């Protein structure tokens, strides 16, 4: 396999740093100088790859989405039955380690900014459209395998994604009433009580 180009590696390094800064300080507090420092580069190098903060942030959100898909790939390509796949996918989505917590913080910042930014609205719509299609596809596979009842797969996907997002925000906010373990149990219970009934 050929080695990635220096440009590709440098761009990824900058975007990784941008996601870390967004997750740690928020979108509004992000400065190109902070991203450069996090990446161990000069601001000039960051500006060489990204003309301005807006371009950098959009690319960082895009990378967060791409990494989200990459984290799910092994689960989606497994030979597991659809319901087991859905359970693992849901569990992998939880804000449970440094990587997923950072990704969740970036998503939360994207949502807040997308309210006022049409470009980010489009990115959010594309990312969430893909996520809901993926979940709906697994639900349909479960229906074909006789594991999931004859319900509207898109509606189930919308409900499950909404449950995950809402509970994850509570976990990130440090709610004593919604811990990570309670979120995990609630999501699995949702699958048992809403997705599975035939």
Q: If you had to describe this structure to a student in words, what would you say it looks like?
A:
By secondary structure, this protein is an all-alpha fold. It has a domain at 60-195: Tetracycline Repressor, domain 2, CATH 1.10.357.10. Helix content is 76%, strand content 0%. The protein contains nine helices and no strands. It has helices spanning 6-25, 32-39, 43-49, 53-76, 82-93, 98-114, 118-144, 153-172, 180-195. Helix 1 (6-25) packs across helix 2 (32-39), helix 2 (32-39) packs across helix 3 and helix 5 (82-93) packs antiparallel against helix 9. InterPro entries: BetI_C, Homeodomain-like_sf, HTH-type_TetR-like_transc_reg, HTH_TetR, Tet_transcr_reg_TetR-rel_C_sf. Residues 8-68 form the HTH tetR-type domain. Keywords: DNA-binding, Repressor, Transcription, Transcription regulation.
What labels would you give this structure?
9 helices, mainly alpha, 198 residues, 76% helix, Tetracycline Repressor, domain 2
